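Q: Here's a chain of 67 amino acids. Please give me its 3D structure as tokens.
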Amino acid sequence: MKLSARNQFQGTVTKITEGQAMAEVVVKVGNLEVVSAITEGSVKSMGVNVGDAVTVAVKATDVLVGK
């Protein structure tokens, strides 16, 4: 799989919370958790399950840093 996003991280799905149309997918990347909201259809068509190894890709026009 090739993506244009440069910020890609390998992780493991730790939790999937399904709603009426959207699902919240939590991915553990090192010591961090990344939460993604995707359609339930995408979860089903990709066959995403807890424990799966996945790639998290972040593409944003702004990345903020605070101190």
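Q: Can you summarize the key feature?
A: Residues 7-52 form a domain with the OB fold (Dihydrolipoamide Acetyltransferase, E2P) fold (CATH 2.40.50.100).
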